[in-house]
TrEMBL record:
It comes from the Bacteria. This is Competence protein ComEA. GO terms for biological process: DNA repair; protein secretion by the type II secretion system. One of its GO terms (cellular component) is type II protein secretion system complex. The chain crosses the membrane at residues 7-25. The gene is comE. Residues 174-193, 204-223 form the Helix-hairpin-helix DNA-binding motif class domain.
Amino acid sequence: MSKIRKFFPILVIVCIIFVFFIKNITPILKNDNYIVSQSEDKKEINKNLEPVQKDEDLNMDNSEKINTVNKKITIFISGEVKSPGVVELYSEDRLMDGVKKCGGVTDEADMNRINLAMKISDEGHYIIPKIGEEIENVKDKGKETVNQTQNLNDNKSEQNKENNKININNASLIELDSLPGVGEVTAQKIIDYREENTKFKSIEEIKNVKGIGENKFNNLKDYISI
């Protein structure tokens, strides 16, 4: 009994310490766990709140980019199509897309003079020709037969070629010397001839110059003018 009394105060102190620990330390630990858990929850919430680009938005962006490049245009198609008129297309479309919108070509359309793969331009007027029909070149802006696009390019090439021809009535010795098959000696003969005969009346007259025969003229005729 005396031993119990001796250790009783110690037991009381131990119990008090234990109770103090339970009441004060445990809530702190719980609160720490709550703080950590709450922090993780916020991160998750914020992550969910971050703007995510939806598939619809992506499709819209892509569509806007495509429309920027492939813009809408308006053309007029007449001639041998089933429903002639004004049609709306895109700048990357071809003539065949416009013809389809006009119901296709008629039985009278001259398919040998149609380039359905040709590119189209805004405000253009495209005439689908009839078999055997001759359509004169027109000056209206954008108005052309389907096969005239290539013809216009050919005409430009011919015009450039014509502008680059050497006028044998006023060309210098150096210019004449640059002609195919014409050397400095022949060039001087050309100058002498035109001075003696008051210039050339036609390009064929150059054959009168000594040293220029029929064969040489055939090589020269596409490069000279008067």
